[in-house]
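Example 537.
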Amino acid sequence: MSAILRVSNLRFSYGRTEVLHGVSLYADEGEIVTIIGPNGAGKSTLLNVVARSHRLRSGEVSLGATDTAAFSQAAVVKHGCVLVPEGRQVFSSLTVRDNLVLGGFTDRRANRKRLMEDVFSVFPRLEERSAQLAGTLSGGEQQMLAIGRAIMSQPTVMLLDEPSLGLAPQMTARIMAVLGELRERNGLTIVLVEQNAHAALELADRGYLLSGGAMVLEGTAEKLRADKTIQHVYLGASPDADPVPATG
Amino acid sequence: METVMQLFLTALPAGAIYGALGVAYVIVHRMTGMVNFAVGDIAVVGAFGAVVASAVLPPIGAILVGAISAGVVSVLMYFLAIHPLRKQGLMVQTIVTLGVGIAVRSALQLVFGTGPYQFAPITAGPAIEIAGGVIYRQSIWVVVITVAAYIGLAYFFNRTLTGKALSACAVNRYAAGIVGINLVVMATIAFALSGAVAGVVLAAQVPSSFITIGAGFALGLKGFIAAILGGFHNIGLTLVGGFLIAIVETLAAVSVFTEHAPTIVFSLLIVLLILRPQGLTRKLVAERV
Ligand SMILES: Nc1ncnc2c1ncn2[C@@H]1O[C@H](COP(=O)(O)OP(=O)(O)OP(=O)(O)O)[C@@H](O)[C@H]1O
Ligand SMILES: [Mg+2]
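Predicted structure in complex with adenosine-5'-triphosphate:
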């Protein structure tokens, strides 16, 4: 099977500081792939380059058979790859409904009403709150909205950046369950960046460990769960364990 | 002694112009977060576009040409002066608009000289008397065109996908990009609309008084106050704000302070900025992220 998303040898710098040193990854259709790693590893940067919030300067990103080198941000969304960014980034002074409507911005002919009903069936809470300003939603509700907004673009690949950030365990479990559901129902491919390695490796098929701007480990979720470094640093009982980057 | 009705009828078209200029500020600010101080001079471009077009077109057509020319100049300004400075931040962009205003004024002066210009009103005939006050027929047109522009803009921002996308850019540029909204396209639309609104209303006003090159700066400042009254966000309240400014100005002009009317209006601006930075709106809109 050929990958629906493939990133090859991606490099990225902020000014003169290179923070991604030739990163590669792939995701097959319907797969859930997780990227874990310490703070500052470059996880968000990686997703932002794939979604073209940051410019792609060196390396390749392809969606299916299409190289996205010449793609604008809108073109990436049109091609079915959407980002659910770190910190939700909802349109805080617009209503929930308008946030969702804007999620479908790139496809004017889409049946937005039907799509919105889809979102409401996944997150009934959003329907109750549809007239409320997004900025007044709780953290968990905002995360639902960020995911709902992404669904509105009818994606084939969804990139999620730490959706569990700041959420209670129950809400985290809820979000993870929804991601699993979306994969089952829509055949969605998911790339999930998570600090919560436990939840992520439970859900994912495969995973990568990104550290210091390079992929230092990859494999099936079982393999990663069994890995000594990961067990020690990311799954360890001690929550304030020092996130030493793995080597090799 | 002026009647209350006359005060109202005098303030109404003036307020419509200040309000429309205020709306021109708000549209650009909503999308970009910057303040476009060239709005007044761009409105004057619209007025002169109409003056030129009036040689061959009926007044209504001339006013339309005025709207289009102001919109075009506004978009040109965006691409030549604002977009190239996108990395320098809002403050630099805002200051540059002051320079653009001066440049536009100088260019107009080169072409037209300083003399006042005028063209024929849409509907000919004497001023109309309403309950003890009089108002020019053309002034009624100014108000009608302003209200029509308001209805059109309210529909655009609240009901259309593009209008919502435009607001979304100001709320959260990063997220706007994420959902696939093209910021350059949206800015182009915002500058075009802003210029057109300012241009059409000032062009419509030309037949009822006249237009001079230098009118832009003072008009622009009054529009700026109106925009502050609208919280730099709310289009309806900006129009109300424009009307309030016109009332204050008209009152000052008929009082013993005749010569100081502009001073009074601008002092009001300072007091307002101190007392109510949120204008007539209930609260300051959340800052852009
Ligand atoms: N806008 C920026 N300008 C300069 N440096 C940046 C910028 N954004 C991120 N960086 C740097 O790039 C590196 C990678 O940051 P990134 O946000 O991608 O990490 P991350 O893995 O997502 O971390 P976290 O888990 O904390 O979200 C960090 O060293 C960070 O300081
Ligand atoms: Mg991050």
